[in-house]
Amino acid sequence: MRLKKGFHLIELLVVLLVLGILVSFAIPVFRNFKDKIYDKEAQSNLVLLRSAQENYRIEMNQYIACDNTSDCNRELGLDLPPADAGWNYSVTIGTDDTTVPPTPTFCGQALKGAYAWHVRHNLSRAYDCDCGAANCTTRCLEAGDSANCTEPE
Length: 153
What we know:
The chain is α+β, with helices and mostly antiparallel strands. The chain has three helices and three strands. The chain has a three-stranded antiparallel sheet with strand order 1-2-3. A hairpin with a 6-residue loop joins strand 1 and strand 2. The radius of gyration is 24 Å and the shape is rod-shaped.
């Protein structure tokens, strides 16, 4: 009797089916991992933007606004990746009139499609909250990060 060499068609189909199932689990995990990396990039760049704003305030006694990433890079001497490479960074400035004397404030923003991260003058970390809302401090406290929820020393 002659021995057959090779695989039957059904064996190959079963192997392909198993591989397809494994790949279907791997793709969402990879996408989620990639999104988390992009979020960490935006958060770390916002902390860098905040530090640059604080340095600018020490030298000029005010914060500076910038409308887009290239303005922020130029005005603050940063090297953030260009907006077409991912996130677009901007800064709005304001004044806190509840203090005497009024205190300058700023809110840095990173936008990428529907995703947004913000950092404010009184928060040392980036959060997914709106610049003008008080919920940034609330989210900071909810995250158990009370040491980073107030004006740094």
